[in-house]
Amino acid sequence: FMIGIPIAFLVILAFLPSINVASYLPWYKKGSAADLANFETCRAVVGNSTGDVRGCIFGIPPPSQRTCVSLGAPCQGGFGVRCPDESLSSCSDVQVEFGSANTSYPFCSSVPGFMASKSACIHDWFSHCSVSGACNATACCDATDAAVSPFAPCSACEANRWPCFQGSGCLRKADAKLQGVINTFLAALVIVIGFAFVPASVVVFPVKERHPHQNAKYQQVACGTSVLAYWMSLWTHDVLGTLVPVAVAVGLLPLYSSYRGDVESMVAALALFVVHVMTVLPAAYLISMRFTNHSAAQTSVLVVGLVTGALVSIFSFLCRLVDFQLVHTLTLSQLDTNYLRWVYLVFPGYQLSDGLFQIGMRKYGNPYGSSSTNWFTATSCPASKSCWTSTKDPTCCVAQAFEFHVAGRSLIYGLVEIVLLSAWVLYADRHKPPPPSSSSSGPLVVAADPPHLVDGDVVAEAARVARGAAASDAILLRKVHKQYDDNKVALQSLSLGIPKGECFGYLGINGAGKSTTMQILNGFLAPSSGAVTVAGLDVRTQLRAARRHIGYCPQFDALHDTLTVAEELELYARLKGMADVRLAVEDKLRQFELEPFRSTLTRGLSGGNKRKVSTAIALLGNPAVLLLDEPSTGMDPAARRRMWDVLVDVLATKSCSILLTTHSMEECQALCSRIGILVSGQLKCLGSAQHLKHKFGRGFTLDIRLGTTTTPSTTAAYVGTDGGVSSKVTAADMERTCMDAGMYERWDKIVRGTGDSGWVLRHYLDNEGGVPSDVWRHWWMLEDMGADLEAFVTQELPLASLVEHHAEHFRYHVPKSSGHTLTSLFSLMEEGAVGVPIEQYSLSDTTLEEIFNGMAAGQEEEREAVHGVHRHLLNASSIQAVTSYHRTSSMTRLRESDRL
């Protein structure tokens, strides 16, 4: 993209035929008045010439004379042709008669090769060639040097007036200039369009590296890469990549008529290309910081490049070409050249376009330069002295290619922008130490739980941190609060210390604040208040030193798609400054069983193997602090166990502390000596896994699923429908049924549309005006069965509490204070629940997962109402675990009920 497309545009331009203005101007059209006049004159010349003279006229010299030259002596008011050494007594044989309307001689060239046949003169008089900017009045159109100049016949016509159109293509001087202007501008325009794809391709990589699901840039910075080193590496890579299209552009310049044989112009064009590339690179880097989607960034940069380069150039060119009076003292051309142009030059694309155009036009006397005269527009060759304009002036000159009004202004603008944009990139991506108090724009929002609801272990940990007892801990967070600009609170006064050699399990659902904590420890986010130290170093003021002690495994794999596994590990080993890079890479390949994949591109790895590589990167260099954000996600059980063994070996050295986030309770219990559960940015509990089970897991969990095929006797009595599937029950029918059954609270459920199941019927009433009879009967049946179950639980398990209810599913917590054991509860369910239509039930002890789910149920995002689900939330002091459907120890019994 960065190389192929610009080269394609350059090659197309090199072989694209030039535009011939004579094909579009009416007075050059075959059959016009000028054409007919010249045709008649040419025919007269041919008719009055005989023998060898006629051959000379058409470029066919006689056998005895191999060359024909023009004769500048007048013959009865005209010019003639003759062959050298030919004896002519008079000019009568070559006399040319002129019509009274023809004031200048329409020369039929005597230069060999230009007029190959008589038919070319008579039937194809005009063969309009391209007159380039290299053809100035002195070098090309001087009649005294006809042997050198193929355009010598032009000067035979006084003041180059038409109809002096030679077979080789002599145009009027104004038309020749117009042709040069158009072709030069189109060449510059095509080049600018091609080079607009350079920044569009450059912007992709930095955006990909900053994408939240890759974060490769953050990983490199976390490994100690400085901002300057990061952008310099990108800049070096991109400059080397752009050398190819720049080299091709310079190599093809001699094929463009404006640069043919002109070394000075080629050098100036090379300078423009180099400055342009070095300007658009930091501009692309700046734009990349505004995007997280590389496709959107690429499209945006391309559009901006085409608009500010191509479209602005076209608009500026038309302003100068199609001129008219705007006000009394200002024309459109003056507005553009004296004012707007200085604004347009801010855009790198316009700099390149204008510079190339002015280089190509300098031999025409800079016809579209600034009309004002001051110190920065002064030139060594004013337009009045141009050799193109002044044919006979021996002091005529051509402006230098590097002068300010030619390529100089574009180069100066570009060089200034290189410095400013590069400094801007480094400034925008710098690490700004957060203020010691608050970094949020508004007042801090604190919504902590009341003191009596805060767990005692959390309070004790905060007190330990506050009195300085945790000063030597490897990780220390002291009253850390993080609030975003939209007043969303991610962390609330978090105080936590992790000693050396400890693995701390940091649990919480998505949005609880785990990743925010990780980013604060890494220095990617600044806390709104509080202090953070890593390995005894203040992250706010000693970030670079602190990062040398951190190994970071992000939540998403920060890998480069085009590197192999071994190359990826080598990259980060070098970034961390390891002495023996090869040994470190081999060690990690062996530890994580990645040897078979050493030459595999990371993009071809499975999810589990990618996590292995990310964890291996974090362990490079034996860091004092390991931040592992869900490292085992996607790993198979064997690979997970292998990773656990590696981490256990690391912990055995007592020199490394680990902060581990995971959704695997098994992993937490296997690795972590302490566990903390984070809910809405607050630490809700803290302690070992056994401690949390003992403190918050007092009791059993009973899951019940009622049968849906048994219809209680009350259903048939009170439903009040004829049993047809297609019939509908109206609101009045349902209200009357509830009243007749003495269960008006069920009608309240329907009216409110809330509760555990009333929303279903309310939905039918609002959208269809009635409820299908089978739905109505099924709902009534579920309500009857739920009432029977509630009566049974109330009688047999009076201390049990309903935790969750959804349709036929019920979940109860049975405290140990009820006096029941697992054996007695199974007996009760088997023998005592005969009158309740239970289809399936399960009993289990409280697990760590259940404690986690119970805590997480208090997360703000989890409190949103879900239709058909009735939850009973428990606070931190009386939390009784909410069970999951996947348990490590449970017993299930299915019972098939008789169908009525």
TrEMBL record:
Stretches that traverse the bilayer: 185-207, 228-253, 265-287, 299-319, 410-427
A molecular-function term among this protein's GO annotations: ABC-type transporter activity
SUPFAM superfamilies: P-loop containing nucleoside triphosphate hydrolases
Domain ABC transporter: 475-705
Membrane topology label: Multi-pass membrane protein
Listed InterPro entries: AAA+_ATPase, ABC2_TM, ABC_transporter-like_ATP-bd, ABCA, P-loop_NTPase, R2_ABCA1-4-like
Record's keyword annotation contains Transmembrane helix: yes
Compartments, as annotated in UniProt: Membrane
Domain of life, per lineage: Eukaryota
Keywords from the named record: ATP-binding, Membrane, Nucleotide-binding, Repeat, Signal, Transmembrane, Transmembrane helix, Transport
Protein name according to UniProt: ABC transporter domain-containing protein
Organism, scientific name: Aphanomyces astaci (Crayfish plague agent)
Source species taxonomy: Eukaryota, Sar, Stramenopiles, Oomycota, Saprolegniomycetes
